[in-house]
Amino acid sequence: MDWLQQFLPLNEGRLGVWIGVVCTLAIYSILYRENPFYRFFEHLYIGLAAGYSLGPLFADIIYKYWVDPLLKGEWYWAPVVPFGLYLYFIYNERYGWVSRIIIGLLIGASAGLFFQAFSSRYLPQLNSTLAKPLWITDANPDMVISGVINNWIFIIFLLAVLTYFTFSFEHRGAVKRVATVGRWFLMIGLGAMFGNTVMARMALLIGRIYYLLSDWLGIPVGGG
Amino acid sequence: MQTERKSFWDRLLTIDRRWLYLALFVNIVVFLLLPLRLPAVVSGPVRKFYNAMERLQPGDMVMVSSNWSASTIAENQPQLEAVLRHLMRKKVRFTIMSVEAQARDLSLRLAQRLAKEYGYEYGRDWAHFGFYTDLIVAIKGMTNDLHDTVKQDVKGTPTRELPVLQGIQSLKDYKMVIDVTPSGTVPDWISYRPKNLIVLYCPTSVMAAEAYTFLDSGQIEGMLTGAKGAQEYEQLLGVVGLGTRFINGIQFSHVLIILTILVGNLALLMKRLAQEA
User: Fold this and answer.
1) A196 lies in some domain
2) Nearest in space to B84 (alpha carbons), one of B53, B57, B105, B58
3) Does A24 reside within a domain?
4) Same domain? A140 vs A56
5) Residue A185 falls within a domain, yes or no?
6) What is the count of structural domains for chain A?
7) How many CB pairs under 8 A join A and B?
8) Which residue has the higher pLDDT, B277 or B125?
């Protein structure tokens, strides 16, 4: 009867596994039909996830960067948290203007950060696109024919999709045809993204089934 | 009253979706239990990821940005596990940080488990910086002065007292950052990191498609796409991890989905043809 003792929730580790199994089955019960069991565990999960984040938030942020320095006598940090709390004046009709100070600071900081982000995020992509060799010449002796074809496909796709997103003038004649091709290219891209999404969802389901088979039932999975 | 008899194709089109769920569940269970390991064709981004890791030297410093929670554990845990194994094999020093509260403890526990296996000592070979609410602020702060920004590790030890950070003043002294994430955190690393820092990316499959522009421009050096990417990477490392164990289920669930799409479309076509006739 050793296997039964190992299987039943008789110690802390096994109890955790059993709780995980009950939660998993409760959440997947929605696939059969809407039920109160599912609703309860859905709310439990959301509540736990939100509550769990409060622990690290206090330990790693509030305590480390505010309480601890104050306890060490660094009093100049004292106004920081009350100043941040001004944001909540947004809910007060009379003193709502106070929150604008914080909102203004946040918008200013975001705008400043965006300048840096734009140059380091998008300019290298523009540079990489413009630098793609479309022919094999003496300047790029390492380039192979498959690379050249790849670059042509890239440029054609790019120009077609950009044409589709050009709204400054009416799409007519050749422009309309290129824009239509651009829309089809977009569809291919979105299809690839959707395919990846399906793969992600399958992996999450497989992760849960793996948990039921391996952690709960102790069955070796994927060849052990 | 006489009821109209449904054709085979009609019955296929009105099948209760719960039978499809059951078929998918049975399919996954059967192929997970199958003691068969299909070899992976290693994709270009995974090969580049592996090569970048292989270029690291013992003692080099790497930042692991682990930002996943329990909801994406099936994709991000195999990735992080494979990455940490490789870092420990290469005797590379590393630190972990998280901008997701759950990731703080999930990554800490995973690293502690693997550290025992590879004889890695906390504080000497690796450390965990804990949880941050804003990645951009953390990156910019650590780029200026890591010790003033991080102050203490997850255990409350001042960073200046951690042997693993000897000779490290800022992110500029790191060689690489590896972002394991289901969220859009990698653009922040690309935008605000010191320019000498190599970026490697481990997204969930959902996020992977958006990263190909960064791969093409060289802003990301390599990428592991979800559990499939982890399986390819495990094959290169020669280990059997969760990616390898999941892959039969992933592949054959896709076969089932493709078959049901084909059958569904065929049924629709046959119904239309019958109506036209």
Assistant:
1) yes
2) B53
3) yes
4) no
5) yes
6) 2
7) 159
8) B125
Per-residue confidence (pLDDT) for residue A224, from 0 to 100: 58
At residue A64 the predicted structure's pLDDT band, cuts being 50, 70 and 90, is very high
Tell me: the pLDDT tens digits for B127-150?
Answer: 999 999 999 999 999 999 999 999
Tens-digit pLDDT profile for residues A99-144: 999 999 999 999 999 988 998 999 999 999 998 889 888 888 888 9
Between chains, do A61 and B133 touch, taking CB under 8 Å as contact? yes
Q: Which of A31, A57, A64 sits opposite B21 (nearest CB)?
A: A31
Phi, psi of B184 (to 5 degrees): -85, 55
The answer to whether residue A100 is domain-embedded is no
Q: How far apart are CA B48 and CA B233, in angstroms?
A: 10
Say how far apart CA B117 and CA B91 lie, in whole Å: 13
**Interface contact A203-B246, CB threshold 8 A:** yes
Per-residue pLDDT tens over the stretch B2-58? 566 788 888 888 999 999 999 999 999 999 998 888 888 999 999 999 999 999 999
Range of the domain at A205: 136-224
* Closest residue, chain B, to A28 (C-alpha): B21
Residue A30's pLDDT is 96
Q: Tokens standing for A140?
A: 């790029």
